[in-house]
Amino acid sequence: MRGSGKLAAGVLAGVLLGSGTAAAAGDPVRAAVGDLVGEGGFPGAVAQVRNGEAVSRFGAGYANQATREAAGPHHRFRIASNTKAFVATVVLQLAGEGKLSLDDPIERRLPGVVRGPGCEPEKITVRMLLNHTSGVHDPLDPHFFDPYLVQGNRAHIITPSEVIRRSLADRPLFPPGRGVEYSNTGYLLLGKVIEKITRDDVREEIQRRILDPLELGRTYFPLWSPFLRGPHLHGYDMDGKDMTVFSPSYDWTAGAMVSTVDDLATFHRALLAGRLLAPAQQAELKRLVPYSELGAYGAGVETLNLPCAGGAKTVWGNTGAGPGFYSVSMSTEDGSKQLVLALNVYDLAADVHGGQRVPKPPMPAVMAALC
């Protein structure tokens, strides 16, 4: 399984050394976002930018190329791997309540589920699933997305259990805890853990624990429906094909959620400021495992090291990529600056088979907002 976030970070981080902030009179962030739209290759973009307590929200280009509807910050979009931070928050809350330990082996929590050549479920801990050190990878079958991309059945359903089974058909990437590799399947297993412990739908747990307390009324978690509710961005591939209608069934707790820039900004601000977790679990959220010199993974969040003009700056949050949508939700370490940016091109076929996934990396906009 691809397209939930592993390559989103790559699109962002892989161009760091060749990027610079946009220089423009007035508002350099708006200018940099504007450069991404139209000739920049993205039909539309929506953003929320915060500097201290000053917040601006804006859109550029089109939410829908066919109707020429203007993109605005009220439009929903698929947040892809930004979902992982919501799921990790629930897991960490359960740990704080004493209902699980991050050192619990997955075999204890999901007996008999992690089975396959080379699997060591008794050595894979909940913490390893959270920070991508379990060795569990996504399905390696290059035809995994054929029902959607080749056969054209965008309503096709692949259950999380089927994704897990197909992921475990091949040997792990490395022994548990002996490497770092982004894993969507690891977060599907965490979703199963949440449901096993709470005896509740994971979506209801996220609603009760996060969405309702923070009043995130425009955020929701679809299970299998390929359609987006209410005003929303349309997402496209690199050829301009509309990819908006696409079942998120395979992505579930790895990347199925839908939100707006305001809701996502509110969530990440609350999470990173320690409003959703007790101190011990907040420390676990921010316990980092470097994946390269460019950044590191925490528990459901990640860091990126920006080469700002005044010196390197570490930013926190998530990136997300899936069919038609690419997003960045990042804050400075001290929380004083924040950017949530959603763009409406991501090419899943290129992600699977190689090729250009987005028209232009958004790093200039990220640096303009956060440096």
From TrEMBL:
Stretches assigned to coiled coil: none
Keywords (A to Z) from UniProt: Signal
Name under which the protein is recorded: Conserved putative secreted protein
Residue ranges annotated for the Beta-lactamase-related domain, each copy included: 30-328
Keyword Signal set for record: yes
Signal sequence region: 1-24
Pfam families: Beta-lactamase
Gene3D superfamilies per UniProt: DD-peptidase/beta-lactamase superfamily (3.40.710.10)
